[in-house]
Fold:
Amino acid sequence: MNIRKLLALLFAMALVAAACGSDGDSSSSSAAGEGGGTVDIDAALNADLSACEDAPTGDPIRVGMAMDFSDVVGFVDIPGSNLVPYMAEKINCAGGVNGSPVEVRVAEVGDDAALAAQELLDWGAHFLIGPPFADFALPILQTTDGEVPMFVAASTEPTLADASINSFLVSFDDNLMSGAVAQWALDEGITRAIVFTEGEGVPYTGVNPDAFIAAFEAGGGEVVSTQTYVWAADTDFSAQVNEIAGISENNEIVFSAALGFQVTALRGQLEGQGLDGLVYAGTDALDATGIQFEANNEGIVHTPHTSISAGDRVDTMLASYEADRGEALESRGFMGLYVDSMFLGLQGILDCGCTEPADIGAAVAQIEGFQGLTGEITYAGTNGIPPKAVPINRIVDGEDVLVATIGG
Structure:
């Protein structure tokens, strides 16, 4: 064989090899590959949408959001579903994820969460961000059949976390949250408690009081009164107040998972009985329903998912959204959870170098020490509930102030 024929043969072989590479796994031009790397959160936060890098050209990473826009949950899912696509745009502006653009599609669950989830799966979602309550989250998990990761962004409901079916909380759960409030009270020297509940074991409105009582009593505290009420409805607490007035020493902590307007209504009625030395504490429901802006809120304690301070990463993100979109988002303390959900899914893709949803879920389950917008997140060794630190905020001189951080 002469040299010309040899060179021709080698050239032909090179063409065949190149053709095989282009016809095979498309992940060579996507975020999938050998694995490794970390989601560059700060690059996304600092991206200027008026001066973007070249648009990423790899295969898209698809993020599905099955959101509940009802009156019960819309106050978090609606702004969350606006913020995540915006942050995806910022990620793409900064060059994407290993050269791949991030696409986001939002589907409102309406009366059929399973249908909304199926639409997102048919679209090709690599992972989902889901609504916070079991009524809609469980049908979505039945639809994914454990194969597609779902981040239940704003939920603290422990029953929704199950790493074996790729279902993950992004926040601390009810037990960590309410146990932290109990620990804070004991650290403050408060040894007596009055608890409002919708009933033992009732999701959220009963489970949080259950967790508070267990931790408070385990630490040596005494629950001197347990009262029932209707969540999001009751504002007349006259019957409960009359009973409390007969046993209170005016030095108790009053704990519930009630909404902001309910807690301040209860406080006013107890103060009408001369009980002005009580401390009022609650859950993330207080942050969600604007306890910072309620009248007669001084001294009230709550557990935001993120204690936001001027110029921090969450504040920067929300200010950027307002500047670019011309409107401020509500439920500020929850917003980082939705974006962290997207970042965690992207980190799973980077870690495994894959785009198969089940493989992404397996990688997410091994995430450890991820520095998200809402704190450090670890799933390794858990059942899908990150053991995050719980911020304890209190209204002090009219300002919402971080006074302690429990756990983590």
About this structure: Residues 1-29 have pLDDT under 50 and may be disordered. The longest strand covers residues 399-406. The radius of gyration is 25 Å. DSSP finds 13 helices and 14 strands in the chain.
